[in-house]
Amino acid sequence: MDNFRDNVVGRLLWAEADQNTRFKYTIWFDYTRRLMNDLHEGDLVAAPNFATDPGGIRYSILQLVTVMPIHYALGTDIRDLKGYPGFVMQAAKSASADWTEQETESYEDTTKIICEAIPTNLECDESGYVNQESSMAMVGKDVYVLTSEMTGQIFNRGIDKDIETVIEIGDLIRDKSVKVYVRVEDLIKTHFGIFGFTGVGKSNLTSTLVSNLLSVDEPIKIVLFDLMDEYTGLLADQILTHDGKIICLGEKTLMKPVFDYVNKPSVDKLDFAVNIFLKNILLPKGLKGEKIKFKPLIKQILQNEGIKIFEEVFTRTVEDFLNEIWSKVEGRFGPTKIGKLNKMKNDVFGSHFKDELTPELAQEFIEKLGFGEFRSQPIASVTEVLNESDLKESIRYNLVEPLKQIVESDKTQISENAKISIHDIINDLNDESKSSIYLVISHDPNKVRRFAYDLGRYSFWHRRVKGTISPLILLIFDEADQFIPGTPRSDTEKVSKSIIETLTRRGRKFGIGVGIATQRSAYLDTNIMGQLHTYLISKLPRKYDREVVGEAFSLSPDQFTQTFKFQKGQWLLVSHEATGIDMPIPIQAPNAEERMKKFLEEYIE
């Protein structure tokens, strides 16, 4: 059959029920070194099923989730190695030759490739026509490996690139000729999550997704909340190509020379601002050697007025302010020290909890806390706290510094050309003539969360009132555990979580989608995770993280096994809506660093 690879035949030896995947199958292949290198987790295989009749054979299409070579001279379990060491070592030495000598032909019955497989819930007939599975695979029957062409048809089943807007999200890990596509509208409107430990390439993948989405013919609006300020380098090409904007929440977010240029541009300030910006830009390892090449890009972004300052226009009470920062003040101190801090809080702020926190009042608090030029009458509880060095440092950095920023904010005048408002952003997000990208950055995570709440709320309200559903808006939250924690501690965490929950539940009706990226899935709100219809998963070493993701998407532990072997840039793609098949697909995503290097070379030329 043309849809099966030549001369690769295994046998289905066992089937058992499974609560997550319906069935779990065990398949054996005769070992050869070439086949061991060709078989991978995620490969599709076919075995005749019970719907086979005189009219023709029907093949259940299964997906391999584990692939492991076994030498039966050494046993099938680590407990089999507890015999006499001399015998075990000699057996291992003899067995090692069998791995290398059986290059293309298997002649040792003691060597097998043992695979676990799960159903894809699809079947095909002898002509290659694919339909929903009508029966389970038959134990004892031959098992065939699908060709690259057939595999591509299965993974992209139902996706019509001629009538649907799609992007290529990556290649199949084991076969670069198989391209995997996702539907843009479903990816955005039904929301997605990127989950992986440090170093697996979350930012790289996010950059690639943004680039691919902005490359489609229809307008896409993307707002990326960048808590760590690490995407400017990875998305500089998109900012320049699509006249994007870096939104700074407050002037303190920028280095002073950069702010001075943004606020009042002049030729004599430009080079200094560019050099300071370049010095402080965060780049991944693969781009650090190219840092100097970013200079003309940064210069152009500044000249294009690509950096805007968002001025917060809201009133905040003293109580609101304390709720935002107090968890940092308390840190990990014990009950006794926390008691002293709370006593001080009541004595200094208690009579002003409901008052608006003005710069004048902030200065008064600084004086009362003993950090001003003109210290007021000492308060006993304040003196007690300041006498302990660790408490004093916590007060200095987590309480007094934020108060000083409020005082300073009253002294800085921002020019109208440097400003951007929520109204400006909302108007652009509803402009169907072009795609747009915004990076939202700040020195204060509370400001980012509050801005996310305001932008999400106004976007949703505007779409609902106007009844508009286009263009598609995608809000991406990097370090998502800072926006949607399972147990919010601050007021800003509560409001950011509330708007993201609203958008994941109701945003799709109005063309608004959410994307999240995090390494700490265990800390996320499970209700919001349950609303995500597309997952991209890489290594998650912590068992609890895997359990949270698995439970949210009904993935079995076996389906996570292949992620343990993933290298940087390799992902398990699972989607209910956006892909052609509702099964995990192991993909190799394009490297965003290579895209940026190419852009840098072309830009300089």
Notes on the protein architecture:
The chain has 605 residues and is of the alpha/beta class. It contains 22 helices and 20 strands. α18 (491-506) links the parallel β16 and β17. α7 crosses α8 and α8 packs across α10. The longest helix has 22 residues, at 445-466. The mean pLDDT is 91.
Largest sheet: 13 strands, mixed
What is the first-to-last residue Cα distance?
Answer: 51 Å
Mean pLDDT, as a whole number? 91
Q: Order of strands side by side in the largest beta sheet?
A: 9-8-20-19-18-10-17-16-11-15-12-13-14
Portion in helices: 25-40%
Determine the CATH superfamily of the largest domain: P-loop containing nucleotide triphosphate hydrolases
Q: Radius of gyration over alpha carbons?
A: 29 Å
Runs with pLDDT <50, length 5+? none
According to CATH, what is the class of the largest domain?
Answer: Alpha Beta
> Structural class of the secondary structure composition?
alpha/beta
CATH architecture identity of the largest domain: 3-Layer(aba) Sandwich
Shape estimate: elongated
User: How many structural units, i.e. domains?
Assistant: 3
Number of helices: 22
CATH fold annotation of the largest domain: Rossmann fold
Taken as a percent bin, the fraction of beta residues is 15-25%
Beta strand count: 20
